[in-house]
Amino acid sequence: MAEHIHSHAPKSGIFNRIDGAWVAFFAILGALAIFAPVDLIPSIKSMLGNLSSTAPFILFAVFLIAFLRATGAEAIVGKAFQGNPVRMVILAAMVGGLAPFCSCEVIPFIAALLAMGTPLAAVMAFWLASPIMDPPMFVITSSALGIDFAIAKTIAGVGMGMFGGFVVMAMSKTALFADPLRNSYKSSCGCGGSDPFNGEVTWAFWTDSARLKTFRDTAIENAAFLFKWLALAYLVEAVMIRFVPAEWIAELLGGEGLQPILLGTLLGAPAYLNGYAAVPLISGLLEQGMSQGAAMSFMIAGSVSCIPAAIAVWALVKPKVFVAYVTFGFIGAFSAGTVWAALNTFS
């Protein structure tokens, strides 16, 4: 359920064509120019320096997204939802962290699974793990927060998927998880294919002109997407470091104990932008004194509860299942933050 850019139907109306990320970007620059002109150039230099150092990772992430889309690798994901229920939950959680789906592409995919009678346990495992990590996000996270943090976040995502999946499996006969699918749903986002199970995988995509065009279009669109959000995030990071006293962050989200981890979990949902923009923001917060545990819980809670991921779940299942999804997400985020904090304490 990665937040990749994708092709939609043309938007109508001037307000629908306005990009909120760029509005925020230039609004921040304008505010700096008016209220703190001496900090404008240093903030821009900091942003450009961070973008430059991250550029190789961004380019690799763009290539990886385009390659997965052009080859049709999404079709492989369907194989995780076949066979023994326990095996399905484990594979669904593991595949969730690697699935090259955008948040709206997952809607018809999951709808088809549920309509075919796939156990909700496997679907829940995939849903929980999917927004937390994917290959491009792993690359970006590793570049800014370190390979250890990226690996730990991936393991946490898979573990949270298994946790949710097995809880649902144990309670599958109860009224809570009976008949989970809404009576009607809409999947009109305009991206993805209509049949996520029978698509052919063509690794040598360059031999097919249509797939080559998909590769080119996806690369261009995702490069623009990543540049936009990372430019905004690095600008916010620069402003935050210059204007937010480090002792504030250290007092609120720093130190040991469960309080900063709990706060990171609770703040993750409302403060989260998207998986890519969150990385440099967390990097800046860590420099200001945020604890490692709070950083991990913030990232995971924000991933699960962010608007694209939440809408994908809400669009398909009844409210009681949605509440269970969010609950699993917050429990998993708090647990992951606690374990990560303990590991950093003993390391």
UniProtKB/TrEMBL annotation:
Topology term for the membrane: Multi-pass membrane protein
Pfam families per UniProt: ArsP_1
PANTHER family membership: UPF0718 PROTEIN YCGR (PTHR34184:SF4)
Family (UniProt): Belongs to the UPF0718 family.
InterPro entries: DUF318, UPF0718
Residues that span the membrane, as ranges: 20-41, 53-72, 84-102, 109-129, 149-172, 223-241, 261-282, 294-316, 322-343
Keywords (A to Z) from UniProt: Cell membrane, Membrane, Transmembrane, Transmembrane helix
Protein name in UniProt: Permease
Subcellular locations according to the entry: Cell membrane
Organism: Paramylibacter ulvae
